[in-house]
Predict the structure.
Amino acid sequence: MDKALYVREMFASVAPRYDFVNRLLTAGIDEQWRRRAVRELALGPKSSVIDLCCGTGDVSFQLLKRDPTTQIVGLDFCTPMLEGARRRALAIANAQQISFVEGDVLALPYPDDSFDGAIMGFSMRNVVDLDGCLREVKRVLHPGRRFVNLDVSQAPNPFFRAMFRAYFYGLVPLLGGLFGGAKAAYRYLPSSLTNFPPTHELADRFRAAGFIEVRSIALAGGAIALHVGAAP
């Protein structure tokens, strides 16, 4: 089975309890990280944003909470995740500002210069072609507008690295298997970090894809990283 198909089926298997397990595994701190990512977009009123690999909509709803005038496209290639996002939207004011769309980040169904911002949360590790994804995201951004990526990373500090490894490779598969109902999926998620570029290398990949003003921001001792780049 190729990676893209495996990832789609894996996320479909965890979709029913995905939100609950995320809150459990991070004690809700992941919401703080998403809020920080949204702030880094530096959006004005009535901006258009694409939330890439949106899952059940966590980042999309944070965008809407920060500014109810934002026009948001939440894009994902996993139908059960999108169904979960649409169910959540029923209980959220102004949710008509969000369109949840099935699509692939490697072939975005939008013309050049379509959005005022792009954001991705905890998903880039799962993308089959990282460089192709970055080029595609840059393509759909207006010049000067930002792409913000939020994901786990390899903490440079030995103490934080050891603590995070114990959590990510030990606790996440254990609790995810117990409460998420898909043990194989929660074993895969930590392993997805193994071949993912460390913070400085991912910043270099942003630059190689053509982004300018690239910077990274370490969170949680560097175990979580934000990468920000602007379209030229």
Notes: The longest strand covers residues 141-152. The chain has a mean pLDDT of 89. The beta strands are 48-52, 71-76, 98-102, 115-121, 141-152, 212-219, 224-230.
